[in-house]
Amino acid sequence: MKLILKAVxxxxxxxxxxxxxKPYVILDLDQTPEPSxxxxxxxxxxxxxxxxxxxxxxxxMKQADNRFIVVFxxxxxxxxxxxxxxxxxxxxxHRFDLxxxxxxxxxxxxxxxxxxxxxxxxxSGVLLEHGHWYHLxxxxxxxxxxxxLITRLQECKLNTLRADNFHAVLKFCNNxxxxxxxxxxxxRNVTLLKHLAQIKCEFxxxxxxxxxxxxxxxxxEKLDEVFSSQSSYNNVLNMNLPVLEDRxxxxxxxxxxxxxxxxxxxxxxxxxCPGCYDSVIFCGTQDDIDRLLQRAPSLQAYFPxxxxxxxxxYSLTDIILLFFQEVEEARLQFTPVATDAACRxxxxxxxxxxxxxxxxxxxxxxxxGEILPAYTRRAIAAIQHGAAPxxxxxxxxxxxG
Length: 401
Known about the structure:
Layout: E1 2-9, E2 19-28, E3 40-45, E4 50-55, E5 61-64, E6 67-71, E7 76-78, E8 81-89, E9 92-100, E10 106-114, H1 119-124, H2 131-137, H3 143-164, E11 176-179, H4 183-196, E12 202-207, H5 221-226, E13 247-252, H6 263-272, E14 278-284, H7 286-295, E15 308-310, H8 316-329, H9 336-352, H10 360-384
Parallel strand pairs: 11-14, 11-15, 12-13, 13-14
Antiparallel strand pairs: 1-2, 2-6, 2-7, 3-4, 3-8, 5-6, 8-9, 9-10
Helix pairs in contact: 8-10
């Protein structure tokens, strides 16, 4: 089985280490079985970000005997480093490990058949079939989340196997501690994680800053609303029986639980969840989580180490890909040389340690606060000095600062 992966620069230039272009794949299957009607290709980088996907029947996938040619119609910036392509043909999965060098050339390092319930099985199977995976996979700083999700789906598939063979299904722990520097960063991704991990339960979300309001006659009104559906509606004897459907509670801004006067709120949360029928997710900074566990040490037992996830610093790949996503949002176009120069500049600053702590906010500030004004000033000045408008439509290296 032989694979050739090429990334064709949009500009036609092959002398740049970093370039924007479209990839295409040529796969010779040799003596392998006839391709099934459900065979798929999926291409990932080393951050488990799903870059491209194609399946048999797509207009851009062509087959001639046992040879596939896949042409992807979306351009992206290519960064030297490790990639892997998964070819799934029915239940058979093959992983191709690839290395992209600074001359823009891919070399195939190995091809490996993958077993059922392997990481590759999950990535090319249940996850690839779920539209939300594309978004979560491309969110930077979530490598721990992705690893946790793959493990959870392996456990789910094991449960399916057990059920098919008339064995009881296993109960897994859904309690999570999610450390993040920003609540906004976590909110949407928690919902995606719940759906992707196949956690089938009612989802309730609460902001801990609203659970205590001393200005109201009942300062715990919001807290009561959070747990208002804790009892069954059919419970005419008022016995506080649990409802049949499990619940998942997410609490943000947990620093508010540690403020003076919030002792009752924390006590009520601990009393209700985690419990037999409910699960809980606490979201906050790592310092907030550490302080919460110190204040309520009994919570330690509910959160196994594997369920304590953090949002990591962005990798260089994350920063470069996010940078060009935001460039498109700002309606900017870079010349091929500017694309290469921007990637080299970001790489140099990353290696020097000056942008290792960057977040999406920092990237946006750099683009809209520095590059955009510099480009605008240069473009206006050039037109004023007689340049044709078409000559100043793209960002050049001198605009990068």
